[in-house]
Amino acid sequence: SLAAPAIAQSAPKVTWRLTSSFPKSLDTIYGAADVLAKRISEATDGNFQIQVFAGGEIVPGLQAADAAAAGTVEACHTVGYYYWGKDPAWAVAAAVPFSLSARGINAWHYHGGGIDLYNEFLAKQGLVAFPGGNTGVQMGGWFRKEINTVEDLKGLKMRVGGFAGKVMEKLGLVPQQIAGGDIYPALEKGTIDATEWVGPYDDEKLGFYKVAPYYYYPGWWEGGPTVHFMFNKAAYEALPAGYQSLLRTACQSVDANMLQMYDYLNPKALKSLVANGAQLRPFSPEILQACFTAANEVYAELEASNADFAKLWQSIKTFRAENYLWTQVAEYNYDTFMMIQQRNGAL
Amino acid sequence: SLAAPAIAQSAPKVTWRLTSSFPKSLDTIYGAADVLAKRISEATDGNFQIQVFAGGEIVPGLQAADAAAAGTVEACHTVGYYYWGKDPAWAVAAAVPFSLSARGINAWHYHGGGIDLYNEFLAKQGLVAFPGGNTGVQMGGWFRKEINTVEDLKGLKMRVGGFAGKVMEKLGLVPQQIAGGDIYPALEKGTIDATEWVGPYDDEKLGFYKVAPYYYYPGWWEGGPTVHFMFNKAAYEALPAGYQSLLRTACQSVDANMLQMYDYLNPKALKSLVANGAQLRPFSPEILQACFTAANEVYAELEASNADFAKLWQSIKTFRAENYLWTQVAEYNYDTFMMIQQRNGAL
Q: Which is it for the CA torsion B170, B174, B177, B181, positive or negative?
């Protein structure tokens, strides 16, 4: 056969479909896939097109990775912990309780070998993934009643996604799986006692403050959750090297961009929520300590029984100790001083 | 004249020269320009090449922006506060004392209008700039003697770059401008009493701990300093739209990547520095408060006398108050809990 001209080989027309796990109403998280598609299209003069579909449009939100692995679509934008039921190892590079903050997990992804380690695991599923967004530390969610002791968690019906429920069960909490649109009525009726969602900006849209005013922090199960772009491995490997490189560059830019968007929007939403009656409450040290202990029990079980989980988690754990040694020096003291000024009205 | 074929218009051969303000020994900061060049080249199949030169190779490090503005080179990688002597407005989007942290300043750059505001100012200099790296909160530097009171700052000869010196002078400190390679001997001989540089990873290479063991934190004058890629405005505007878009995407990816690299490397370097005798010391609340007051005096003067400075600083200031309201909720409480675990040896 005739050799194609060099220019056609290096910049071929490629059209991919990307299924998001998120509804369009989440402009922050859902929007990140649109931003990726736009950047890729612009950089290739429209030769590499990624068509973005919201969760449920062509694939249910929680099956996005399955669809990309099967080649039904070439790409998805999802969170690894949605698939923890297949194997808890899926969750580790996304978020597990008491893991790294947004800055920490990104340092691990990009310079601590995290991207390669996760892809070693995902290759067995037929996928290649790169970080594609972070929300920062999430809030602990909305509670109808105050939670003062570990005892108060017992029997509490809480809508909570993913792997975190497994840890919470150890404390007697009863995790509920409820889709986004169904949470508000369940909370209003008292079918559930509490729900977590994301943080002020996304939470405000769903109006939970009207029916469950106690807004707890921090969301210890999502210290810096990573949303991933996942690609069908064969489709990714069939791309010319230039497109692969561009995709990695664009993913890293979008990963940063989502956190930046949250960091800009969350403060305004928090002010508005508090003005509308949300009651901010910290989880007590006693509760956090009990949750930390429960999480460590789950990790010990999984490290003993699941080699993929152990490899990923031990890599994060090693860096986590170093990371929190360093951040308590300059970062923490700078932030503390600035927060004191904020409270004093001096900023 | 004949119309060029469409493909040639959209992916023309372009070769740019980029002068860095930094020496090659700073693989973190200097390296970011190499990463940008590699990503741009790969994504364009080698059609858009950026040749990177270290500080001093073709242009002195502190004249990088001048060279890009004049069109001597098309691009530079530099820090805005190097040019504060021309006009303090240059410094605001880079770092000024008690400004935003790395996450905060990036939220402002990308979603708070910061990039456009800075470019409004830089357009008058013939430049277009995008964030191209961040170090995180820097350390306060190396001191030959302990600094316990504001009185101890009086007459102290400290090597400190940029705008921060203007604030420190208010406290009686005597800022010294000394190039990187000359700092160690000056510190050893006692010609200067103290120096700031960057943070553990970069500082360790220069060996300051051997001659000035007191390592203070935080570097309140660099809470989240942004390094910028600056482009000759005419050269940037002459690029095809696809290359401009790619350049912006790649800059945002590199901006994130530098911070991620520091966040991964600094903890290891801190451990090593302490093992080698560095003595960690926090600046006292009294000292920080005096520096904050001095900084606010300088800002008040400049806001009254310099419209460009005022526009940029007031935009940051407004967001700064919101940012530190929000971060003291989930982020700060999560980090605090994790740091307690770190100190307890539980991570």
A: negative
Domains of chain A: 13-133+224-264 (3.40.190.170), 141-222+279-343 (3.40.190.10)
pLDDT, one tens digit for every residue, chain B (347 residues): 444 444 445 789 999 999 999 999 999 999 999 999 999 999 999 999 999 999 999 999 999 999 999 999 999 999 999 999 999 999 999 999 999 999 999 999 999 999 999 999 999 999 999 999 999 999 999 999 999 999 999 999 999 977 899 899 999 999 998 878 899 999 999 999 999 999 999 999 999 999 999 999 999 999 999 999 999 999 999 999 999 999 999 999 999 999 999 999 999 999 999 999 999 999 999 999 999 999 999 999 999 999 999 999 999 999 999 999 999 999 999 999 999 999 999 99
Residue (of B51, B154, B137, B46) closest to B99 by Cα position: B137
CB atoms within 10 A of CB A179: 13
Residue B80: DSSP 8-state:
G
Q: Tell me how close the Cα of B144 comes to any Cα of chain A, in angstroms.
A: 19
Which of A138, A203, A226, A325 best tests the B interface by mutation, with the highest count of B CBs <10 A? Answer: A325
The string of DSSP letters for B284-327 reads PHHHHHHHHHHHHHHHHHHHHH-HHHHHHHHHHHHHHHHHHHHH
Pairing of strands A75-78, A226-232: antiparallel
N-terminal to C-terminal alpha carbon distance within chain B: 70
Select the residue from B38, B49, B103, B243 to test the A interface by mutation, using most A Cβ atoms within 10 A. B103
Round to the nearest angstrom and report the end-to-end CA distance of chain A. Answer: 69
Q: Identify the three-state secondary structure at position A95.
A: coil
Rounded CA separation A93/A78 (Å): 12
- Cα–Cα distance, B100 to B239 (Å, whole number): 33
Mutate to test the interface with A, among B249, B262, B283, B286 (most CBs of A within 10 A): B249
Q: Which residues lie below 8 Å from residue A2, measured CB to CB, with a gap of 6+? A: none
Question: Contacts of residue B259 in chain A, CB cutoff 8 Å?
Answer: 103, 106
If you measure CA to CA, which chain B residue comes closest to A107? B260
Spatial strand order in the sheet of B226-232: B48-53, B14-20, B75-78, B226-232, B127-134
Which residue from A minimizes the CA distance to B28? A111
DSSP state letters, A241-271: HHHHHHHHHHHHHHHHHHHHHHHHHHHHHHH
Q: Closest Cα partner for A137 from B326, B218, B264, B259? A: B326
Question: How far does the CA of residue A63 sit from the closest CA of chain B (Å)?
Answer: 29
- CB distance A249–B253 less than 8 Å? yes
Element (H, E) at A122: helix A114-123
Return the structure tokens found at B190. 């006692």
Tell me the C-alpha distance between B16 and B37, whole Å.
10
d(C-alpha B247, C-alpha A43), whole Å: 9
